[in-house]
């Protein structure tokens, strides 16, 4: 490819709306352009990288027995209603009607579609395991699309679904995909961690997110340096904190004027914050009041609350009216005296507290000397791990203090079990001719997110620093003076030799100043730059710049191709 024929409009300034480095650099380097909020066109350089990521994915999926197919983006509402997710999925689902008034959705994911396809085609245990996959656009109506390709309304995703005869088979498929994902992100040149994760709206059993480590990441990750534990903060399970034994005192109601926050309460009563009990009031889609209680120095994990309460799919902050209907007041809540209409979820560590402070369900009043295992009605509460992990908490595996970092989720693997096969009546016949439900798993990779996450991890003040495997071009050949016919001829010969050696190479034959071309090379992030100058024509060694290190190498003309190939192997 010649730069004079390449559509790669670079910019010196970033768009005002761009916040993340990846968003800014993808715009400036001419990888993407915005069509509307959360909708982007991929320009040739961006699409070349996307295709390279997709090729790595295809190779690893096929190596594990995956079979590529393509399903419709437009999905009939009936199959989503059959699975029970039409109402559950929420406003993120883009819905539409055809001219006959029939309801459809633009696929945010394809569990229903693949399950209904397979239930009509795969009938015998002899056809299992079966792992179909596709690489296709997905659609989610994000309430606030932002960060470029990180949170968009239309995105490219690889989704594979495994169908097995039993749990053991499903777990084998899961391990295959776990290994394949590790290989994919390693081949892409990324620093990543697989972390235990929540299944969310997908449902099912256990799950891991593959998270690229980057300070700009939306995900918060807890990890242990003493063992292999790593989990998203939404998923991380916590051990019970056992309070020190002490003599129990009788519960007592006291006046706490204007003390409607934990900070005000602890200061007014002069008690340690870990001796207070904090309430957070939510309501769900059915307008049920759900009140979560954690220790005053802890934070409520909403995902864990959703998982603890049957039928809760989304949580919203409860209003004063709903709280009052349960015989309570915001800022003064506790399970003691709360109406039975409220669903009460208490963190397991709260139940170990003694002589604590909790709300009295009336304005300007609290209980002191609350011992939950004595004072809370066990029949009316749900006890669960509902707190958010924080740095320094004991590792749930080995007990050593955990550390926190940030990351960008680029892929996730799930076991689904029979969740969809039962809901959609997808069965096969075993050796005895008996009908059984498929054991399923699903496995997704955000292709555009992977590209953006790579840029977040590899960049500097001058631009992108691509790993060789997914760079739009591996090498760029730059004649210093494109008006000099001798330089152009030499550059073209080097270009042809590199191309013949199987190297993905670009010839920058634009009649721009050398400084402009060099800046574009660094901005776009080609791993190697070969410079053809008057010194090259005079027989001096050819200059090669390594983008990642900024180091310059010089090679004799007759060894250039071999040396460039060797350098690429290290990038």
Short characterization:
The protein has 571 residues and is α+β, with helices and mostly antiparallel strands. 26% of the residues lie in helices and 27% in strands.
Description:
The protein is α+β, with helices and mostly antiparallel strands. The chain is built from 16 helices and 31 strands. Helix 2 packs antiparallel against helix 6 (167-187) and helix 2 (44-63) packs across helix 12 (447-457). The model has no long low-confidence stretch (mean pLDDT 94).
List the helices and strands and how they pair.
Elements: H1 21-28, E1 32-36, E2 39-42, H2 44-63, E3 67-68, E4 74-76, H3 77-83, H4 85-88, E5 94-97, E6 103-106, H5 111-119, E7 132-139, E8 154-164, H6 167-187, E9 192-196, E10 207-213, E11 219-223, E12 230-232, E13 252-255, H7 262-269, E14 277-283, E15 289-295, H8 302-308, E16 316-317, H9 320-325, E17 343-347, E18 356-359, E19 365-370, H10 372-375, E20 381-384, E21 403-417, H11 419-423, E22 427-429, E23 435-437, E24 439-446, H12 447-457, E25 459-460, E26 463-464, E27 475-479, H13 485-500, E28 505-507, H14 514-524, E29 528-532, H15 534-537, E30 542-546, E31 552-555, H16 560-569
Parallel strand pairs: 3-7, 15-17, 17-20, 27-28, 27-29
Antiparallel strand pairs: 1-2, 4-6, 5-6, 7-8, 8-24, 9-10, 10-21, 11-12, 11-21, 13-19, 14-15, 14-16, 18-19, 21-24, 22-23, 25-26, 29-30, 30-31
Helix pairs in contact: 1-12, 2-6, 2-12
């Amino acid at each position: 490819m010649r730069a004079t024929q390449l559509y790669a409009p670079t910019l010196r300034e970033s768009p005002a709306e761009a916040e993340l480095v990846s968003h800014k650099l993808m715009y400036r380097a001419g990888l993407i352009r915005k069509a509307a909020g959360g909708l982007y066109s991929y320009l040739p350089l961006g699409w070349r990288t996307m295709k390279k990521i997709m090729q790595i994915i295809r190779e690893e999926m096929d190596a594990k027995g995956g079979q590529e197919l393509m399903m419709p983006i437009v999905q009939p509402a009936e199959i989503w209603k059959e699975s029970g997710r039409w109402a559950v999925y929420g406003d993120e689902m883009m819905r539409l009607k055809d001219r006959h008034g029939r309801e459809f959705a633009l696929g945010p994911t394809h569990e229903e579609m693949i399950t209904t396809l397979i239930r009509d085609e795969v009938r015998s245990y002899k056809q299992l395991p079966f792992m179909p996959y596709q690489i296709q656009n997905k659609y989610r109506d994000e309430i606030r699309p932002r960060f470029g390709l990180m949170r968009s309304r239309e995105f490219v995703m690889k989704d594979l679904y495994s169908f097995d005869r039993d749990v053991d088979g499903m777990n084998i498929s899961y391990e295959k995909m776990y290994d394949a994902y590790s290989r994919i992100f390693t081949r892409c040149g990324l620093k990543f961690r697989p972390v235990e994760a929540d299944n969310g709206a997908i449902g099912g059993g256990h799950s891991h997110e593959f998270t690229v480590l980057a300070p700009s990441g939306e995900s918060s990750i807890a990890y242990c340096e003493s063992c292999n534990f790593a989990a998203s903060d939404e998923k991380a399970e916590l051990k019970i904190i056992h309070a020190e034994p002490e003599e129990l005192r009788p519960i007592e109601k006291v006046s706490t004027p204007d003390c409607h926050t934990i900070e005000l309460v602890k200061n007014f009563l002069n008690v340690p914050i870990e001796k207070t009990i904090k309430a957070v009031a939510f309501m769900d889609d059915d307008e049920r009041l759900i009140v979560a209680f954690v220790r005053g120095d802890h934070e409520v994990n909403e995902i864990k609350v959703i998982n603890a309460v049957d039928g809760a799919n989304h949580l919203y902050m409860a209003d004063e009216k709903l709280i009052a209907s349960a015989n309570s007041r915001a800022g003064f809540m506790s399970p003691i005296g709360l109406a039975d209409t409220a669903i009460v979820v208490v963190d397991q560590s709260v139940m170990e507290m003694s002589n604590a402070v909790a709300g009295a369900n009336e304005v300007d009043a609290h209980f002191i000397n609350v011992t939950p295992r004595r004072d809370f009605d066990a029949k009316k509460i749900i006890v669960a791990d509902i707190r958010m992990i924080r740095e320094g908490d004991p590792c749930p595996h080995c007990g050593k203090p955990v550390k926190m970092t940030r990351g960008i989720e680029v892929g996730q693997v799930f076991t689904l079990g029979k969740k969809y096969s039962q809901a959609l009546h997808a069965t096969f016949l075993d050796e005895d001719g008996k009908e059984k439900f498929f054991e399923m798993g699903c496995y997704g990779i955000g292709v555009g997110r992977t590209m953006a996450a790579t840029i977040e991890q590899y960049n500097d003040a001058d631009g992108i620093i691509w790993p060789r495997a997914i760079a739009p071009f591996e090498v760029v050949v730059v004649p210093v003076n494109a008006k000099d016919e001798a330089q152009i001829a030499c550059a073209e010969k080097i270009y042809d030799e590199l191309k013949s050696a199987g190297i993905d190479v670009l010839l920058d034959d634009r009649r721009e100043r050398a400084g402009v071309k060099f800046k574009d090379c660094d901005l776009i992030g080609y791993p190697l730059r070969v410079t053809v100058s008057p010194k090259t024509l005079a027989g001096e060694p050819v200059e090669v710049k390594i983008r990642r290190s900024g180091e310059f190498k010089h090679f004799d003309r007759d060894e250039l191709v071999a040396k460039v190939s060797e350098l690429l192997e290290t990038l």
